[in-house]
Amino acid sequence: MSISSIIMKIANVSFAIFSLIGFSACTGNKSNDTGYLKISGERFHTYYHITYQGTEDFSNGIDSVFEVFNHSANPFDTTSLIAAINNNQGNRMDDILKTIITRSFDISKASGGAYDITCSPLINAWGFGYEHLKEVDAQVIDSLKKFVGYEKITLTNDTLIKQDERMKLDLSSISKGYCSDLIASFLKSRGVENFLVEIGGEIAYKGVNPNGEAWRVGINKPLFDTTGLIQDLEEIVVLQGNGGLATSGNYRNFKLIDGKRVGHTIDPKSGYPIQTDVLSATVIAADCMTADGLATALMVVGSQKAEELMSKFSNTEYLLILGTKDENGFKTMVSPGFRQKIISK
Hints:
By secondary structure, this protein is α+β, with helices and mostly antiparallel strands. Helix content is 31%, strand content 28%.
């Protein structure tokens, strides 16, 4: 089912949802006299910011999108469909879940399994998921890898079949991107032509900003100084037309295990946190869901296989920040199309 069909369903149940909730988490205000509104709030343990041109406050409708999405794909919500699948209490998928999982499998196949939403047991084991193991060693990792692998999942119509009931899915690497897409589609369905939707750094955009220019966003560069702290430098990127942008990186979300910095991106093949040269990956694509999943995949495959992976997806561009041993600590690898969108360094 298309995104527009999903949005129609959301619109139809919008009133019922807000009759039950009785409260909107959104806050809205005029940005300036150019007719743009800003809405912001917190969802899925992260913050969102939405800016769009118009005079109508769509806070309620946007909250409806969040609620419907939450019921489908939020593993922290015990009543969600993904929680039921993970806990073997059901195997039904709705249109949102089918869209996310189908696209994630496309990226899994294209990356040779480097990207895999079934590595939830490994993510949990390393302490980055919704469950935690007390100890992680080679024996534990080997045992968990037995029920990791997207090829062990079968999608049939509206059902998902797992070869092993211990398999669990982690959609965090792609779901926020799709939620941004859904809100973008909701705004389009209300006649909004100019907007930027950002959920936890995953962006869906269209048209121009309040200054009448293409949307501009900053991309953080990691810099490890002598104190070990991380500072940020910015690239300014122009987002023209209609599409999505997403960034994945390990330099902020990490843990110290036995004195070593361990990033949150796990290699499904080895079962261990990735050991590639990529510190962060930013992708621009036709939609934010694809950009979100590909950014994570690039973290795993590394710079040597980046071009090969991205060539399998049309209308995509990328920027990689690579770790080096020189005094700067990093360098960039940029696709030609992405380079044209950078306006400052």
